[in-house]
């Protein structure tokens, strides 16, 4: 049976940062977005409020900004290598993130079979963000179930990689999970734990014996 590897983005594939922070850095609004990241991490605001507030910060955002943010972000090393190995083994890899879909979906170009994020309007923005399209921790599980159906696997065949509060529900739903540079919210939940800057190290903890 094939396996489905499910990767978080912010704090997991991106080390010590988030897609919104990297996007905001292009606009000189990094500090404001770091504050929002801290607020959502502490549970002071929820995903819909977070999305509404970063959307308001990004009134001048262009596709060029998004491209620069993606290229300059602090990615973990080895992402494409890991995903190529997963594909070579006949397995599947996907990214599920609360960050904007217009950033997350670019990861299909690196080898992810699928990449899902919160639905934001097209850049540059001419519409308000719809809270109904903003993902939550619970939504990650729902998307994982849809991906299982699409790829013909079950939850028992899934491996989750994450770092924080938004990954708790998914870690509780699958049998194998890797806490990657994780915070206190995942203490005692993961079957494996990795600290470092190379995604291969995290993947190696959970991959099937050769």
How does this model look, in words?
With 210 residues, the protein is α/β, with parallel strands linked by helices. It has a domain at 4-15 and 75-206: HAD superfamily/HAD-like (Rossmann fold, 3-Layer(aba) Sandwich), CATH 3.40.50.1000. The protein contains nine helices and six strands; from the N terminus they run βαααααβαβαβαββα. The chain has helices spanning 19-25, 30-41, 47-57, 63-72, 79-88, 101-104, 137-151, 168-173, 199-206; strands at residues 4-7, 92-100, 114-118, 158-162, 176-180, 192-194. Strands 3-2-1-4-5-6 form a six-stranded parallel sheet, sandwiched between helices. Strand 4, helix 8 and strand 5 (176-180) form a beta-alpha-beta unit. Helix 1 runs antiparallel to helix 2 (30-41), helix 1 packs across helix 4 (63-72) and helix 2 packs antiparallel against helix 3. The mean pLDDT is 95.
Regions with little confidence, pLDDT below 50 for 5+ residues: none
CATH class of one domain: Alpha Beta
Strand content: 5-15%
CATH architecture of one domain: 3-Layer(aba) Sandwich
CATH topology of one domain: Rossmann fold
Strands, total number = 6
Query: Which word captures the global form?
Result: globular
Short description:
With 210 residues, the protein is of the alpha/beta class. It has nine helices and six strands. It starts with a strand and ends with a helix.
List keywords for this structure.
single chain; 210 residues; alpha/beta; Rossmann fold; six-stranded parallel beta sheet; 9 helices; globular
Which secondary structure elements does this structure contain, and how are they paired or packed?
Elements: E1 4-7, H1 19-25, H2 30-41, H3 47-57, H4 63-72, H5 79-88, E2 92-100, H6 101-104, E3 114-118, H7 137-151, E4 158-162, H8 168-173, E5 176-180, E6 192-194, H9 199-206
Parallel strand pairs: 1-2, 1-4, 2-3, 4-5, 5-6
